[in-house]
Amino acid sequence: MLIIALVASLAVTITPGTGRARLKALTLETAALMRRERLGAVITGRARQISIDGDQRALVGDGGDVVLIPRDVVLDVLGVDEQQSRRLSVIRFEPDGTSTGAVLKLSRQEAEYEVRVNWYTGAVAIAPD
């Protein structure tokens, strides 16, 4: 019985997919990307944006940073700004720190997190925290 339990626990730990901890890490990574792009806009004095690359399933910042979205994670976006070639612009940060505002919901099975960007202040927050 002990051997069966050990084999079963190994099978559970090595099954592919995004668990709750990985989903939270992905959410934190997404929020960090947004904060870096906002800071980049303020420092350079030029608008910066984050867009979705549907082919790569990735969020791409103007600064070159990329956050890959795993296939088992659903990304819902409220606030798509515009479409440029093959990418959808999700959010744009202005040099004064303001933004177009957006809500990105990352979910998998029963777990979900939101990254919210305030349009007026450009502040980035995660819910639930």
Any key phrases for this structure?
4-stranded antiparallel sheet; 129 residues; single chain; alpha+beta; 5-stranded antiparallel sheet
Structure description:
By secondary structure, the protein is an alpha+beta fold. Helices cover 29% and strands 36% of the residues. The protein contains two helices and nine strands. The protein has helices at residues 2-13, 20-44, and strands spanning 48-53, 58-61, 66-68, 74-78, 82-84, 87-93, 102-108, 111-117, 124-127. The chain has a five-stranded antiparallel beta sheet with strand order 3-2-1-6-5, covered by helices on one side. Strands 4-7-8-9 form a four-stranded antiparallel beta sheet, with helices on one face. The longest helix has 25 residues, at 20-44. It is globular. Residues 11-15 have low confidence and may be disordered.
Counting DSSP H or I runs of 4 or more residues, the number of helices is 2
H/E series: HHEEEEEEEEE
Largest sheet: 5 strands, antiparallel
* Shape verdict: globular
* Share of residues in strands: 35-45%
Strand pairing plus helix content: what structural class?
Answer: alpha+beta
Indicate the radius of gyration in whole angstroms: 17 Å
Strand order of the largest sheet: 3-2-1-6-5
Uncertain runs = 11-15
Helix content: 25-40%
Total strands: 9
Arithmetic mean pLDDT: 85
In whole angstroms, how far apart are the ends? 40 Å
